[in-house]
Design a protein that fits this description.
This protein is α/β, with parallel strands linked by helices. The protein is built from 17 helices and 16 strands. The chain has a seven-stranded mixed beta sheet, sandwiched between helices. Strands 1-2-3-15 form a four-stranded mixed beta sheet. The chain binds 4'-deoxy-4'-aminopyridoxal-5'-phosphate (PMP). The site of 4'-deoxy-4'-aminopyridoxal-5'-phosphate (PMP) has 14 residues, from helix 4.
């Protein structure tokens, strides 16, 4: 590893050398050693219309020649205004105020501060947030607090503020227990609201898909019921659409798919089509008005140096234009995923196959008794690659949903094995523990998607 670098989510002592990427086009990454690899996870879920899309690149170039950056407090500019208008148009009615920042965590942090201070400004401070078990909202202190307590957050536990958690009703193809799970989550919510109607500043959820917690998928009707209850209780609903936004769920946003009207929406990742770090927190006029005052204590004192960066705005406008021109690119993927998942159903090593829009996932399970465990992965030299049960990223889902290190042996090692084999076979897959997911750029062709599933099928065969 380079002597001057410190990579994120990376234990340098045990992880393999980072792969050096020379360039990227569409779904393809070109490594320095000349290999070409399909980016089947859109590079940490950001790349929407493929790497290096010429339209977004050109928009950034043009904007850079005119205005690359300017302080966004006391100043404004055309790209920021245009983007705010564009976002308000594509989001559900009622979301009218756009606050810019520069990554997913900050977009959530802003949402938490907005809703918390909203109540302070009303003279009715509220002490806590409600969030969902196995949720992930970022790595800052506020976002760690509303996320599941895990290995990632353990060192900081004493510094995290208290949050109450609700069960996330996750479902999959053929799941017959989802009605009960949803009813239970709503009953838990109701109990809490009845016991302490004035305690909660807001409720935060990753709508339809919990990402890092294991690509857990929920139903639109659960969001509708949740939104109704919160409207009645007059508690703001915050949607963390950092991952689900901009077509990922097969619709523009999870909230447009579920046809609900949240109070705050957090956006980042795909906002710039995966080109630039940029984010937006969009709220209702009612929340904005809670800050509109001559009293300086009612101001939202939050801002980042690069807030409203004109290059980010220009990239986002170009990415939104691409979505508007080619909605079929993200609308078509669910049916294609389904076809492939249906053929994987027969495999005895997989369960809980699921799909929401452009994202497909499944759990790898321990082979049943009597099934031989292949020497191919058992002796795959994981140690030589430095991947083992303690690999932080490889066991994220396990860590987030359970206690650290509950999965050992097969389930702890199968994720790293898949990651390694997939790379050897020309595909970037990065399982979350034993959850394998495919989250490709929208420009992937049917043949290329079939290639990804072919690689998965081959690896699963080797695992047997
Ligand atoms: N919220 C969700 C739902 C996410 O998936 C992520 C990133 N994986 C974040 C927030 C944090 O975003 P960032 O990594 O840009 O800070």
């Amino acid at each position: 590893m380079h002597p001057n670098l410190w990579h994120p989510y990376f234990q340098a002592k045990t992880c393999p050398e980072p792969l050096k990427v020379r360039s990227a086009q569409g779904i393809w990454l070109e490594l320095e050693d000349g290999r070409h690899i399909i980016d089947a996870i859109s590079s940490w879920w950001v790349t929407l219309y493929g790497h290096g899309h010429p339209r977004i690149a050109a928009a950034i170039y043009q904007q850079a020649q005119q205005l690359e950056q300017v302080i966004f407090s006391g100043f404004t500019h055309e790209p920021a205004e245009q983007l705010a208008e564009a976002l308000v148009k594509v989001l559900p009615p009622g979301l009218t105020r756009v606050f810019y920042s520069d990554n997913g965590s900050t977009s959530v942090e802003v949402a938490l501060k907005m809703t918390y201070q909203y109540w302070v400004n009303q003279g009715q401070p509220r002490t806590t947030f409600l969030a969902f078990e196995a949720g992930y909202h970022g790595d800052t202190f506020g976002t760690m607090s509303v996320g599941a307590r895990s290995l990632f957050t353990q060192a900081f536990t004493p510094l995290l503020f208290e949050v109450e958690f609700l069960p996330f009703p996750a479902t999959w193809l053929g799941d017959e227990t989802i009605d009960q799970k949803e009813a239970q989550a709503i009953a838990t919510l109701q109990d809490k609201l009845t016991a302490n109607p004035d305690r909660y500043a807001g409720v935060i959820i990753e709508p339809l898909i919990q990402g890092a917690g294991g690509m857990n998928m929920g139903r639109p009707q659960f969001l509708q019921t949740l939104a109704q209850h919160l409207k009645t209780a007059q508690i703001p609903l915050i949607l963390d659409e950092v991952m689900t936004g901009f077509g990922r769920t097969g619709d523009w946003f999870a909230c447009t798919k579920a046809q609900i009207q949240p109070d705050v929406v957090c956006l980042s990742k795909g906002l710039t089509g995966g080109f630039l770090p940029f984010a937006a927190t969009v709220c209702t006029e009612a929340i904005y008005e809670g800050f509109f005052s001559e009293d300086p204590f009612k101001t939202l004192y939050h801002g980042h140096s690069y807030a409203g960066n004109p290059l980010g705005c220009a990239a986002a406008l170009a990415a939104i234009a691409l979505m508007q021109e080619q909605p079929e690119a993200f609308q078509r993927l669910e049916a294609l995923h389904l076809q492939h998942l249906n053929s994987l159903q027969a495999c005895p090593m997989v369960e809980k196959l699921r799909v929401t829009g452009t994202v497909a996932a499944l759990d790898i399970i321990q082979p049943t008794q009597g099934m031989p465990t292949s020497q191919s992965w058992a002796n795959s030299g994981l140690d030589a690659f430095g991947w083992n049960a303690s690999d932080l990223d490889a066991s994220v889902a396990d860590i987030l949903t359970h206690q650290p290190s509950t999965k050992t042996g097969y389930l702890a090692q199968v994720g790293p094995f898949i990651r390694q084999r997939a790379l050897e076979l020309g595909c970037l897959l990065r399982p979350l523990g034993n959850v394998l997911y495919i989250l490709p750029p929208y420009c992937i062709s049917e043949a290329e998607l079939a290639q990804v599933y072919g690689i998965i099928q081959q690896i699963l065969n080797e695992c047997r």
